[in-house]
TrEMBL record:
The chain crosses the membrane at residues 70-89. Keywords: Membrane, Transmembrane, Transmembrane helix. InterPro entries: Cyt_trans-like, Rossmann-like_a/b/a_fold. It comes from Helianthus annuus (Common sunflower). It comes from the Eukaryota. This is Putative rossmann-like alpha/beta/alpha sandwich fold protein. GO terms for molecular function: catalytic activity. The keyword tRNA processing does not apply. SUPFAM superfamilies: Nucleotidylyl transferase.
Length: 92
């Protein structure tokens, strides 16, 4: 997977103005992560920059996914997790 430069500069503000890099032991985030897009990439990149020890990513299923218009086309939760692990580990 190739990650390109941030296409929308105003969304990729310097996180060090909010919190210094590695300023949190753990960063926890969650979502459905259906159809991974640049917003998800920025979300994961911010978590990777702020976390010192670990990132915990919760992938929603059940009622949260069934409300999506194309929920039957979504990837299996296991595949989501594998993609997110790869995406997070290769954020640079």
């Amino acid at each position: 997977m190739t990650i390109v430069e941030d296409p929308i500069p105003e969304l990729s503000s310097d996180l060090s103005t909010i919190s210094p890099p590695n300023s949190y032991g753990s960063v926890v985030l969650g979502g459905t992560f259906d159809r991974l897009h640049d917003g998800h990439r920025l979300f994961l990149k911010a978590a990777a920059e702020l976390a010192r020890d670990r990132i915990v990513v919760g992938v929603c299923d059940g009622p949260m996914i069934s409300k999506k218009q194309v929920w039957t086309l979504l990837l299996l939760c296991f595949l989501y997790v594998q993609i997110l692990i790869y995406f997070t580990c290769h954020h640079e």
